Each structure stands twice: as C-alpha cells, then as structure tokens.
Fold each of these.
Amino acid sequence: MNFLLSKEHQMMQKMVREFALNECEPTAAQRDEEEYFDIKIWHKMAELGLCGIPWPEEYGGAGADYLSYVIAVEELSRVDASIGAALSAHTSLAGWPVYKFGTEHQKRKYLRAMAEGKNMGAYCLTESGSGSDASGMRTTAVLDGDEWVLNGSKIFITNGGYADTYIVFAQTNSALKHKGISTFIVEKGFPGFSVGKKEKKLGIRSSATTEVIFEDCRVPKDNLLGQVGEGFQIAMMTLDGGRNGIASQAVGIAQGAFDNAVAFAKDRVQFGKPISSLQAISIQISRYGHKNRSCPFIDVSGSMA
Ligand SMILES: Cc1cc2nc3c(=O)[nH]c(=O)nc-3n(C[C@H](O)[C@H](O)[C@H](O)COP(=O)(O)OP(=O)(O)OC[C@H]3O[C@@H](n4cnc5c(N)ncnc54)[C@H](O)[C@@H]3O)c2cc1C
C-alpha cells in the first residue's frame, strides 16, 4: 500500500502547515495559558476554505476528500491542538451528521453556513450522568404543535459558546431507551438555549469546552435531523467518523512534540556539545522519528530508524 501523499494532498499539507506556523503558532502558547479561543483565526481558516474541506461545493464546501481534511487537522494540531480540536468537532461531529442525514433544506441552510465558516458547529451528546453510556441521557424533547421543546443540559461541549449550530441528542420516548433518542439542529439564538460553565482543562485549553443548557428551548419541527428514534444510531455513526479527527489530532500533537524535542536537543548544550549528539538522546529521537518527513503517518513499525 502506498502511503505517500498525492500532489493535491501535499499542496493541502503545505498550505495548512504555513497557515498554522504564520497564524496560529505566534499566539498559541499565550492563548493556551489564557484559555482563550481566538475567533479571528477561525475567520481566516474560513477564508482559506478549511471549514468545509470534505463537503461538496454545492453545500459551500471545498469538494475535497476526507484525507485532505485529516491532513488539515493534523497540521493544525501539530502547532495548536486547540484549533485542530475546534475544526475536528466542527467538521466530523457537527457537519457530518447534517451532510449524511439532513434534508436538502437543512444542508442548504446549516451545512452551507458551517462549510463556509460563517457558522461554527458543535455536537451535544454527553451529560453529567451519561458519558460512555450515552443511552442514559436525561435531556428530553417533547413535540408541542410545530415545535419541539427541549429540556436538560449537556457537558464537555467543544466549541460551546462560539458555535452557532448545535447537533443535540434528546430523549423523545424514554421508555424505548436508546431507540427513543432523536437528533435536533439547534441554533444558539433559539429561545431557551444558553451556554453554561466553561471547563478548566489540563490541555488544549484554548479550545472552549462548556456546558450547554436547554430550558423549554423551542426548536422548529423541521429541525429534527433524521427520523424520530434514529438519534442513537446517528450519534454512534457520527462518533465513528469523529475518531478520524481525534486520531489526526493525536498524530499532529505527537509530531509537534517530536519537532520540539529535536529542536531542544539540538539547542541544549551539556558537556560542551548539544545533547542531541549524546547517544542516549539520539537513539530516542531516531526511534520515534519519521523515516519520511513528507509522509503524514508516523512510522509505527517499531523498527529503529
Ligand atoms: C476535551 C473534551 C472534549 C469533549 N467534547 C465533547 C463534545 O464536543 N461533545 C460531547 O458530546 N462530548 C464531548 N466530550 C465528552 C466525551 O465524549 C466523554 O468524556 C466521553 O464520552 C467519556 O465520558 P465520561 O467522561 O463521562 O467518562 P465515563 O463514561 O464516566 O468513563 C470513566 C472511565 O470509565 C471507563 N469506562 C466506561 N465504561 C466502560 C466500560 N464499559 N468498560 C470499561 N471501561 C469503561 C472509561 O474508559 C473511563 O476511563 C468531550 C470530552 C473532553 C475531555
């Protein structure tokens, strides 16, 4: 199997790498320290077409493939894991379910705005009492005339507060347990929607992770995503795709850590020479380094390079 990137993918890698170095790196440490998400960087990403990489052009996307998207997440995460996380949640967790399960109207209204970067997306599954066991959620949605009325709260929501479009999972028939869950597209301006506590995290601190609250939140009937009772399946299928985003974030972070370790080892002088020339250090570097720096995949063969 050939793991080398095509010309188009190499161009994407180069463009995002330059963007990350020029636009993210100069302020990444400070934003992380201050736990501050800079929406201006998001707007610049939108200008470059990074907010809808895998979606068709008719829905505002770049019409590229999924590999192009994971290359972008990897390159951003290499320099700024928070920006990588924001793009990953926006694309894999919020954009994908609309692309896959949305009506034509929903795609033209919500996917287009997300793909063009005018709106940011978020995915609301986790609750204080239901993490791994997502089927145990307590948030409810009850149909009242032409609107669904949502009550409950979600936690750990990436892009919370900054996002405009929230993909929300709620129980529409709790007697049916996971088969009674449905999915809704909720705009941040809908009555009864609010953003709660922001989490203080150990890492990726300039990515916002918040509580999201629904108090008699009124959602138009047309904003049901998929069918009633299809929500658990949508949530799980979305997470399956989301793992590509998480994996590319992890590869990017590992690459960034490696780059920094090499730079430090070359710079740090002990016993009259850079520590990179000490065998114990150089073996560690060669062991975890890339064989081919143009390839986005870390060599996991375990062989000593
Ligand atoms: C930075 C960050 C961003 C996030 N962004 C989002 C988001 O955008 N949207 C969203 O909905 N959620 C988000 N989450 C929530 C995330 O999906 C949950 O943290 C995850 O589902 C795990 O839930 P939990 O933290 O409640 O852990 P728990 O489910 O309480 O698990 C605790 C521990 O028990 C283990 N465990 C649980 N069940 C089993 C089992 N059956 N067998 C063996 N071990 C088990 C787990 O592996 C874990 O180690 C985010 C979380 C973080 C940390």
Note: The domain at 121-237 is CATH 2.40.110.10 (Butyryl-CoA Dehydrogenase, subunit A; domain 2).
Amino acid sequence: MDLNQRLKDRVVIVTGGASGIGAACARRYAAEGARVVIGDLDADGAAAVAGPIGGIAMRCDHTDAAQCQALVALALQHFGAVDVLHNNAGTGWTGRFGDMPGEAARRLLEVGVMGPILMTQAALPALRRSAVPSGGALLFTASGLGLHGRPMIAAYAAAKHAVLGLMRSLALELGPEGLRVNAVCPGIVDTPLVRATTGGWGPTEQVLENFRLGTPLRRLVQAEDVAASAAFLISDDARNLTGTALLVDGGAHEA
Ligand SMILES: NC(=O)c1ccc[n+]([C@@H]2O[C@H](COP(=O)([O-])OP(=O)(O)OC[C@H]3O[C@@H](n4cnc5c(N)ncnc54)[C@H](O)[C@@H]3O)[C@@H](O)[C@H]2O)c1
C-alpha cells in the first residue's frame, strides 16, 4: 500500500473548507489522493482552495437543509460517490456570558450544532452506499472545549459538547451499518475565526501566547497538525476507531 495515498480516490466533503483548519484538511486529503468537495459560506474562498487541488466547491450554508442536499448532489454528480463527510464549519464568540446577545447565541448553536446535524442527514444515504471496503466515515471538528469548560466562551463550549454527544451517539447507531464516526478536537489554532472571535479573552497575540505557554510542549497547534490527525481518522489506518475524540492541543488539557 502507498502510505502517502491513504485516501486515494475517496470522495470527501469538507464544510468550512475555504479557510483555516478546513482548508488545511482539504489540502491534506487531496495530497493523500482524495477527491475533495468543499461547501462554505464563502464561495470564492472555497473555489480558491478547491481549484489547485483538483477539487470542486460551492457556496453552502450548512444550516440550510436544501443547501446541504445540493452539496451532496454536487459531489455525486462530479465524483459519483460520497465516502467521507467532514463537518468542520463553525463560528465563535467570547465574552461574559451575561453579555452575549441572544441572537449571537442562537446563531452560534445553529452553525455549530444544527449545521452538522443537517449536513450529516443530507450525506447519510450516500455514505451508506460508499464502496470503500472499510465503510464510509464521518468526522467532526469539535474542540478541546467539547471536553472541558473555560470562562468567557460558554455558548461555544456548549455547542462543542453537543457535537461530541452527536458524534458518540452516531458512532453507536451507525457502527452496525459499517460507518465510522469520530472527532478531532483542536486546541487554539491561529485562524481567521480565532482572530475575529477571541477578543473577549484579550488581544489575539496575547491569547495565543498564553495558550502556547499553557501547553507542555510550549508550541501552538497549526491547522496542518489538525489536518494530519483528521486524515488519519478518515483513513483505513483508523478502521477500528469509532466514537473517538482525538485531542490535538499540545497537551494543554493535561496542564
Ligand atoms: N481555530 C481554533 O482555535 C479552533 C479550535 C478548536 C476548534 N475549532 C473549530 O474548527 C472549525 C474551523 O474553524 P477555523 O478556526 O478554521 O475557522 P475559519 O473561520 O478559518 O474557518 C471556518 C469556515 O467556516 C465557514 N462557515 C462559517 N459558517 C458557515 C456555515 N453556516 N456554512 C458553511 N460554512 C460556514 C467560514 O466561511 C469559514 O470559511 C470550527 O468548527 C471551529 O469551531 C477551531
């Protein structure tokens, strides 16, 4: 087996693939031989990532069931299958819980929880038909904040705890059908999301430096580090892993 081509010819849908962690995952999957389909609110950004890696992209708001169906239809039309769904798109908010506008909380949960639910429902029939011998795979980008709490980010932590509840329950429900369901749980990664939404914790550079100092390894997690773990989880190297929440946080959870 060519270990550099673990995902050869597998059709992988990545939501939120226009930027940050999702873009790094899309590039990594393609480098390992996958055919990548990106759905993102940012159509131009998604096309800019998909083009150079031989993938395809479309504007897709994963909180809208019809748009999720359209993304799956695009994958089937161009590549004839869906072997993996990586639910990655998300958004954030930091600040004092009592100050969070209700609408911001509603949107955060809509994007963070309803999006993955609707996208998964849309992709399930195709995932069940995957011809990959080890079966179709679902992957969620959760967070270290799906496993523990932190001040000034309660609604986001609630959304990520929900994602892990979804992941674990689907692993049990879909396992007998041969589908694997896992999550990657990054620590803080310097992405546009972090720069736009961690102001409630302080200036971004300070937030990143504090996090780095809080890791036993004293180094920040890169989007490419998350992508390497994600590629493992959707590959046959993880064929006996399901219901796993894999932390990629430099050991910060132990500190
Ligand atoms: N950056 C971090 O520190 C970090 C840590 C843990 C988990 N995460 C999670 O990683 C995922 C990716 O985050 P990122 O940091 O790469 O952010 P990012 O902002 O760089 O990328 C997120 C992408 O999701 C897209 N998106 C947002 N709402 C969408 C919607 N409704 N439908 C479709 N696409 C939508 C955005 O347009 C963007 O391209 C998120 O789920 C986030 O919660 C990030």
Note: The longest strand covers residues 180-186.
